[in-house]
């Protein structure tokens, strides 16, 4: 059991990472929550794909090939930025069950798999991206609660009313920290609602995905500044924050360029 409290809100929890056991194998809440997020993301994307005229089963097929690709790339991304921890025993890089994945790697892997699928099936990749953006947001909204169950992805110390109180084993004391997992979940929820409303008014195919990239990048940029477990752990800079800034800028530039192009056509 791990203590997680929000004293300013009058909320107190004792969290067990293990949900239940099957044949002596522990099943963790993290996996259940991630799986739930994936399922809901696919269901929504299937519904949205029908609305925009994509072939049936497109999003299911992409999810089937994109999920393993996302997991592999998420692990590669994590290991690459923490190679010193694996250099002594390179085979340990494959021990993904011991933890260690990164969301940006997962996004890259999923998008890459989707691109290959669309090229083979001769389907509009940008249209798929617009639909997939909602799936990514749903996965991130729900998935961050897996971090809550693991008592991870928290920020620096704070005295704000919504502070999260935890026992940090690394420093052997109780700390009041920013619940950055919650910040990101709520940020993505707002982004989902805004894009869900805007999707019928988009100016060009791919704009919803670019707006997602921009929105997520802007949010991740300030959230990463608060987090204390950002990659790479031993560096003085945060790679996820740099990636967030770059992707947000690229998203804005491409939106402006495509809107200008549309006006000139």
Description:
The protein contains seven helices and six strands, in the order E-E-E-E-H-H-H-H-E-E-H-H-H. By secondary structure, it is an alpha+beta fold. It has one domain. A four-stranded antiparallel sheet has the order 2-1-5-6, with no helix packed on it. A hairpin with a 4-residue loop joins strand 5 (164-168) and strand 6 (173-177). Helix 1 (29-52) packs antiparallel against helix 4, helix 5 packs antiparallel against helix 6 and helix 6 (207-226) runs antiparallel to helix 7. The longest helix is centred in the middle third of the chain and has 26 residues, at 125-150. The mean pLDDT is 90.
Radius of gyration using CA atoms only: 20 Å
Main sheet overview = 4 strands, antiparallel
- The class by helix and strand makeup works out as alpha+beta
Strand order of the largest sheet: 2-1-5-6
Low-confidence stretches: none
Count of distinct structural domains: 1
Structure summary, number of beta strands: 6
- Terminal-residue CA separation: 61 Å
> Helix amount, in percent?
55-70%
Put simply, the count of helices is: 7
Looking at the structure, what is the overall shape? globular
- Classify the oligomer: single chain
- Return the string of H and E elements: EEEEHHHHEEHHH
The average pLDDT score comes to 90
Share of residues in strands: 5-15%
């Amino acid at each position: 059991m791990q203590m997680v409290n929000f004293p300013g809100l009058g909320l107190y929890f004792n969290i067990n990472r293990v949900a239940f056991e099957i044949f002596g194998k522990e099943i963790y809440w993290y996996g259940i929550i991630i799986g739930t997020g994936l399922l809901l993301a696919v269901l929504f994307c299937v519904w949205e794909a029908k609305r925009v005229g994509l072939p049936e089963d497109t999003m299911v097929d992409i999810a089937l090939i994109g999920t393993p690709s996302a997991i592999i790339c998420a692990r590669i991304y994590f290991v690459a930025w923490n190679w010193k921890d694996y250099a002594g025993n390179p085979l340990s890089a494959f021990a993904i069950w011991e933890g260690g994945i990164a969301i940006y790697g997962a996004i890259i892997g999923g998008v890459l798999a989707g691109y290959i699928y669309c090229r083979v099936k001769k389907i509009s990749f940008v249209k798929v991206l617009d639909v997939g953006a909602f799936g990514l947001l749903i996965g991130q909204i729900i998935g961050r609660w897996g971090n809550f169950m693991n008592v991870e992805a928290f920020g620096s110390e704070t005295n704000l009313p919504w502070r999260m109180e935890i026992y940090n084993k690394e420093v052997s004391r109780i700390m009041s920290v920013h619940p950055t997992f919650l910040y990101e979940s709520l940020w993505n929820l707002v982004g989902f609602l805004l894009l869900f409303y805007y999707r019928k008014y988009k100016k060009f195919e791919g704009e919803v995905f670019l707006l997602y990239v921009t929105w997520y990048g802007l949010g991740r940029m300030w959230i990463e500044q608060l987090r204390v477990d950002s990659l790479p752990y031993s560096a003085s800079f945060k790679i996820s924050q740099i990636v967030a800034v770059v992707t947000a800028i690229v998203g804005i530039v491409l939106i402006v360029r495509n809107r200008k192009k549309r006006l000139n056509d």
